[in-house]
Write a structure and sequence with these properties.
Radius of gyration of chain A: 24 Å
Strand content of chain A: 15-25%
Largest sheet of chain A: 9 strands, mixed
Structural class of chain A: alpha+beta
Oligomer: homodimer
Helix content of chain A: 25-40%
Number of domains of chain A: 2
Largest interface: A-B, 60 and 60 residues
CATH architecture of the largest domain in chain A: 3-Layer(aba) Sandwich
Number of strands of chain A: 22
Chain lengths: 442, 442
């Protein structure tokens, strides 16, 4: 296929004109002020519609990592890579990678992509939108005879929903203990990586080092309701929040619900309830976007006529600001101590998960923002409350993400839905952000 | 065996002298002001100690109604009836009954007793203390050649812990649906009654009508910690609290713990916690002895990183005053509505169990109080927070109960314990209360 290359200008990268054939063969100079490119939106949504039947069950999409449906989803995806001329390969971690060479062999790759595995009983948009969007961006560049200076790599990470396994492997953050964990498919991660075409014995070959990439960008559905509520088309993700999980064991004394006067109780349920209310008030009392959730509670003995002797509950705490996570960790411990004293119970608080915030790169955000502006899309900067492969890539490369609205803010559910026009908007922003990155990055 | 009868005085029943042989053969006049009788305390505690091996398992006493251990416990008890000369019979409901005839054939029986079945993983005192105490009272009267004017009946009710089945049968409050319920033993109540020697086809033959009994008295361990805390020996039970159970279903909306801002949540867990705190504050804010317990909570989906969409919890509400139960029923509904509005959740409150308070008879309480006073025991009037067969008997006869302290207020537990001297104190009070009842009742 015939290709045009960028006309280089070392003086002003932002003004470097971009050549493309529209109509084919007719060179068109494209500057920062010129009309942005567009992906083939109908094709992209067609892929998503077709993909909806892969792993579809009566209770939702079930393409959990290493399952038969995941393998079917990967086969579908590999075909899209091939049709796009991306000549896919599978790295030793099981990630699918394709590449468009750039004109300048000295430049590092721009990496774009997402994942195609799902949660249990999930939807068809969390992952595929960004994966297929990235493939479509590469295909559009190729079809529109736009040749970047940088290599463009497209990645579909393996087993994102099982703990960003593919992207963590790519930054060398997988331990032997991680490999022995049993994934939702029932297979260990070690078995799963082999099953999808990786090789755990050579896992380090999948690794990227800090500085190996020009940048990483990921298109994803928001999974929350902020964009929809604000009536905006695009979210420019400032970072992925840090996450800390706590397991709180509250010990009181189980006793007869009829014969124990109210002032002689050591009621673990009452203590748990007071804790839940206080945690909520503490977080809401400080301005910002901290979220804290008590999602799980196990009561013992959990019988109508017995005062609970023990409650185990979890707290999920997230913020983009690591200092806030530290602040609330201390605050929760203090609340537990105060309520323990007041209710004659004891609080034992253990941390189980602890992920640092992943802050987006200002330049990458600016490229995304500029692309959205050029396309005329309304937008805002916002954190991602959910985890993504992008958080792993932020450890080794300048990173930012593009969000498109989720209808009703619903995700990880069969009701998950993003409108076709929003899918296309997101891919268009990714396409033009890639071009901006190509112009600006060295 | 030689017996003496009461010398009758129609003028002043309270002053009727009571004849007994101490030493055997030497008549001794006993008035209200005279020394009270005593049971054979060592024998009574010996029975309890021996009974501790019946149904004893590594996790506690397991003599649940209709189990093999219950049958063994009943066989043990029947022997005690026989040894006491009580010529036991089993009524059609499966209750064990023994009788000492009185001197006046026109008088109705005084009924005393309790039960010998246990909860799962219970102790050896809840039930046996009052059952063996009643047998010992009858045996002591016989041995001490004291003949009452009234017949004295001793009853050991069947399957108290499974819902006062024997005593409810005795007041005609068992429905065919009740008979079909599966008891903790795995057998239906219908099967169980047959197994213990009853006959469900003739259940009505076990019934007592209102007015059939002079009175009913039951000795029982307190099962709470009021007596121990107050340092008192005897509780004179003013009544058995009414009980109402509520099942509260709180519906919010399950959503992502990371992507849903705090002000956009419909968090069923937060609503449940606020409800639990508010119910506790409401009950503690009104003077009295109302108790309310949230013993059970089932959270959905109960996952660390998902905001709970539904919580089902139970409230156990008890008070001796039916008006207070009505008041708090209304108050809980109001609290649910307020919290539902504030948290964007809905509260659906259903009543599942509803038992009216059973108020003790002032005369019967006075006999118990007088007996305890004559014996020099410290005492107080108090409600029973737990249910008892006595609550059923209160519907057809003047009723009161005698409580003795539970160490640490613990019951329905292998740790349940009542000191031997407290067991004897209780039986001594029962003995002398029976004598007072015999003098005073017509």
């Amino acid at each position: 296929m015939k290709r045009r290359t960028f006309l280089q200008s070392s003086a002003a990268l932002a003004a470097v004109p971009l050549l493309r054939n529209t109509p084919p063969g007719a060179a068109l100079a494209l500057g920062a002020s010129q009309a942005p490119l567009r992906v083939n939106g109908a094709r992209l949504n067609g892929w998503l519609a077709k993909f909806d039947s892969v792993g579809r069950t009566p209770t939702g999409i079930n393409r959990v990592g290493y399952s038969d449906a995941d393998l079917a989803g990967r086969a579908f995806t590999l075909d899209l890579f091939r049709e796009a001329g991306l000549n896919p390969r599978i790295d030793t971690a099981g990630n699918i990678l394709g590449r468009l060479d750039g004109t300048d062999r000295s430049l590092k790759p721009i990496l774009i992509g997402s994942h195609v595995d799902s949660v249990t009983d999930g939807g068809n948009f969390d992952g595929p939108v960004g994966s297929f969007g990235a493939i479509e961006v590469a295909r559009s560049l190729r079809e529109q005879n736009v040749r970047l200076r940088h290599p463009l790599e497209v990645v579909v990470w393996t087993n994102e929903e099982g703990g960003t396994v593919g992207s963590r492997s790519a930054i060398g953050h997988i331990t032997p203990a991680d490999l022995d964990k049993v994934a939702r498919s029932g297979k260990t991660i070690r078995e799963g990586i082999g099953l999808v075409g990786g090789n755990v014995a050579k896992l380090s070959e999948a690794e990227r080092k800090k500085g190996d990439l020009a940048c990483y960008m990921e298109l994803h559905i928001e999974q929350g309701g902020l964009l929809e509520k604000a009536g905006l088309q695009i979210g420019v993700v400032e970072g992925i929040v840090g996450l800390r999980w706590f397991e709180v064991t509250i010990t009181g004394f189980a006793n007869h619900a009829g014969t124990t006067p109210m002032d002689q109780r050591q009621d673990a349920m009452l203590a748990a309830a007071k804790f839940a209310v206080a945690v909520n008030e503490a977080v809401r009392g400080v301005p910002g976007r901290t979220v804290a959730t008590i999602g799980r509670m196990v009561v013992s003995p959990n019988t109508t006529n017995v005062i609970p002797g023990q409650v185990v509950l979890t707290v999920d705490l997230r913020d983009l600001d690591a200092a806030k996570i530290t602040h609330f960790t201390d605050r929760f411990a203090q609340i537990g101590q105060e309520i323990g004293t007041a209710t004659k119970t004891t609080f034992d608080i253990k941390q189980s998960v602890d992920t640092a915030p992943a802050i987006s790169d200002p330049k990458v955000m600016a490229w995304i923002d500029g692309a959205a502006a050029a396309l005329g899309f309304t937008r805002q900067r916002m954190p991602s409350g959910a985890g993504h492969d992008a958080q792993e890539m932020s450890r080794i490369a300048p990173m930012a993400m593009i969000f498109v609205p989720s209808v009703g803010g619903i995700s990880h559910s069969p009701k998950e839905f993003t409108k076709p026009e929003d899918v296309v908007n997101g891919a268009d922003v990714l396409l033009n952000a890639v071009i901006a990155a190509d112009r600006a990055s060295t």
